[in-house]
Amino acid sequence: MADLWESDPFSPIGYHYKDLTLLHEEQSEYQTVQIYEHPFFGRMLVLDGVVQLTQRDEHFYHEMIVHPPMHAHPAPKQVLVIGGGDGGSIREVLRHPSVETAVLVDIDGRVSDVVAEWIPSVASALADPRVERQDQGGASFLEADQRRFDVIVIDSTDPVGPATELFESAFYARAFHRLSDDGIIVTQSESLHFHADFVRTVQQRMAENFPIVDCYSQAIATYAGNWWTFSIASKSPDVRNGARAPIEGLRYYDADVHRSAFLPRRVLDQVRAGSFP
Ligand code: SPD
Questions:
Q1: Domain count of the fold of the chain
Q2: pLDDT at residue 160 above 90?
Q3: Rounded distance, CA 199 to CA 268, Å?
Q4: Looking at residue 242, what is its pLDDT?
């Protein structure tokens, strides 16, 4: 049996997981990739010592990063996921029948391969013919690739190291030009308990580039800080109130979840003013 003392450089605390079995470990070109088995959480993906997903609760995160923007768009056909090499976000994107192409851009292609081998319930959609995989950084992809997307999902690791460029204003400016006229972008933006200043920064940077910016949240048991936020920006659709009827077959997301996930306006104003909590 192994122990994992999570070493999360972006959090004031780390979790201690007991009774783990280490199933796989490798050093990729970019990071240490580990797969553990936990008696409660099931299989877990850990990158550089930080838990990225567990079998038990990954659907809360992946449904919530994907379905609010996908349902706020009238008919998303071309979708881009940056980060998210594990395939969980792509799996949710492909549940939408309107989707023709889902491009996955992750700098570390080994993550997809390892998760496909050890946690196929998360990665199996990567084999879908609508998926195009690009193993490169998100910012350089947006610079080089001239296609336009209806929805862009930034399913990144914490904003340290290579992921920091995915939270810059210049990155959102590039994303704006790669989005269709009714395009929507969403990014995971860390914990309201621990990183309210970071959420404020992301909101500000999105507002420098998009006319509509909002924020919703979802509790995630295994991310330090738990009260996980998703910052969302839109060229025109009303992301807070404009969701279509939910697609079938989801475990958690529905119309009530969509409505209640958005931060109350008073709280969002406090976050943006730097007076939260
Ligand atoms: N502190 C961990 C935050 C991890 C966010 N990304 C998760 C990727 C899952 N697809």
A1: 2
A2: yes
A3: 10
A4: 87
Nearest CA owner, ligand 1 atom 5: 157
105 lies in the same domain as 151? yes
Q: Is 181 an active-site residue?
A: no
The CATH number linked to 6 is 2.30.140.10
Is 135 found in the same domain as 15?
A: no
Atom of ligand 1 nearest to the CA of 51: 2
Mutate to test the pocket of ligand 1, among 10, 34, 52 (most ligand atoms within 8 A of CB): 52
Q: pTM value?
A: 0.98
Is any atom of ligand 1 closer than 6 Å to the C-beta of 223?
yes
Cβ of 52 closer than 6 Å to ligand 1, yes or no, is yes
**Chain mean pLDDT for the chain:** 97
In the numeric block, which tokens belong to residue 115?
């998760």
DSSP string, 216-254: EEEE-TTSTT-EEEEEEEESSS-TTT-PPPPPSS-SS--
Can you tell me which residue has the tokens 């862009």? 152
Same domain, 95 and 191: yes
Q: Do 70 and 180 lie in a common domain? A: yes
Q: What pLDDT is attached to residue 66?
A: 98
Q: Tell me if 84 CB under 6 Å of ligand 1.
A: yes
Tokens of 62: 């992946």
Range of the domain at 257: 58-273
Given 106, 108, 150, 155, the catalytic residue? 155
User: Do 39 and 68 lie in a common domain?
Assistant: no
